[in-house]
Write a structure and sequence with these properties.
- Helices cover 54% and strands 22% of the residues.
- The protein is α+β, with helices and mostly antiparallel strands.
- The chain has two domains: 3-49 and 254-388, no CATH class; 57-64 and 81-245, no CATH class.
- The strands form three sheets. It has a six-stranded mixed beta barrel with strand order 5-6-11-8-10-9. It has a two-stranded antiparallel sheet with strand order 2-3. Strands 4-12 form a two-stranded antiparallel sheet.
Length: 390
């Protein structure tokens, strides 16, 4: 009978006690995997919800704001020495070291235009955008009609459409040029309701400002991104721009994610401590109960290293089985329970294969670590004393 058979035979003789330890360890492992799946899914949901708020970095041309007194009248807010941002400058954002954290960049060109329709004459704000990028930032946009697929079409905010009494498919005159209204934005509760949007290239040609950018919005994926570094990196590639952060959104996002992570690590630490204690107590009890058996092994010529190998083999087998069962149970719980708890589709559950790849080796390592002291204690049992106690 080799050492491995002796270890497995010992586990088989103590099915009740070993089963209790195995189930407890497996439950601990399943809980950790389910918890991290819950945390990752929550982080994914939080990122998606916060991304709906839109941009969290605003890029504006740099200028000097002067306060003057003229003719006894104080004049503030006079813009002087205003820099210009070009469209090709915006492309430099995708060259910063943290470009992987950039979700979308939407440059905009703003200009005033006189609108004439049904006897209505007034100035409106005309904004040129790349609709694909704008929609990545403003995911809440809903439209009656369709977004333009080419030049010659515009989208109007709901307030403009109401004032002008126009619908999708109608025509609108801007500075004497007729454009087709491809869609009307549904109410957003923001300044977008009072804006006319057109394709960036079309608007830049219409305003005679080809390649010029009035401002740009940047949406950053910030579950773990250093927003201060991103801002500094954008400033380094756009020295003529004024970079502003929307700090409130960023702080809320980071604080929520950090709270979830702290909770996950705290629970994991507690479960790990309980698992180690269970294995240690179980192996110590086994060594005490088998003093005579171990003494006989030693009297028959078993060396200390053989006794240590037997005990550690038991710990390895117990923790390996617990890790496998716990990992499978954790994935099953995550797949079945989390969609109901989070009220999301199963496809939105973030279950990382990396967690399984790490959890099983960690459980085995902890099991072996908890079995080292009992194994050394068993190896120090005096065979004569153990046999005399029979």
């Amino acid at each position: 009978m080799n050492l491995r058979n002796i270890a497995f035979h010992s586990l088989n003789r103590q099915k009740g006690k070993r089963s209790f330890v195995l189930v407890a360890m497996a439950l601990g492992c399943a809980t950790v995997i389910s918890l991290f799946s819950f945390i990752n899914s929550q982080k994914k949901a939080i990122e998606s919800q916060f991304d709906e708020y839109g941009a969290n970095i605003i890029i504006l041309p740099k200028s000097d704001n002067l306060g003057l007194s003229y003719g006894g009248v104080n004049i503030s807010g006079v813009m002087a020495n205003q820099k210009e941002i070009r469209l090709q400058d915006i492309d430099r954002i995708w060259q910063i070291p943290n470009k992987k954290n950039i979700r979308a960049v939407s440059p905009k060109l703003l200009g005033a235009s006189r609108v004439e329709n049904n006897g209505f004459h007034n100035e409106v704000l005309l904004v040129g955008v790349f609709f694909q990028e704008e929609l990545r930032i403003k995911q809440w946009w809903e439209i009656d009609g369709a977004f333009p697929t080419g030049n010659g079409a515009i989208v109007v905010g709901c307030d403009v459409a109401q004032q002008l009494q126009i619908n999708p498919g109608d025509s609108l005159s801007l500075d004497g040029n007729v454009f087709e209204v491809s869609g009307v934005l549904q109410p957003t509760g923001s300044q977008d309701d009072s804006i006319v949007f057109g394709d960036f290239n079309m608007v830049s040609t219409f305003l005679g400002r080809e390649g010029s950018v009035s401002m740009a919005e940047v949406s950053a994926l910030c579950s773990d991104c250093p927003i201060e570094q991103i801002t500094a990196q954008i400033e380094s590639v756009l020295p003529d721009a004024n970079i502003k952060q929307i700090r409130q959104v960023m702080q809320q996002k980071m604080q929520s994610i950090e709270q979830f992570e702290r909770f996950a690590f705290t629970v994991t630490f507690v479960l790990v401590a309980i698992g180690v204690a269970l294995i240690f107590t179980s192996m110590m009890g086994s060594v005490s109960e088998r003093r005579q058996e171990i003494g006989i092994f030693r009297a028959l010529g078993f060396k200390k290293v053989h006794v240590v190998s037997i005990i550690l083999t038991e710990s390895f087998a117990l923790s390996s089985i617990a890790g496998l069962i716990g990992t499978a149970a954790g994935y099953l719980i995550s797949y079945l329970a989390l969609p109901t708890l989070l009220n999301v589709e199963r496809s939105a559950i973030a279950i990382s294969p990396l967690v399984a790849g790490v959890s099983i080796p960690v459980v085995v390592f902890l099991g072996l670590g908890a079995g080292i002291y009992p194994a050394l204690k068993a190896a120090r049992i005096d065979p004569v004393t153990a046999i005399n106690s029979l």
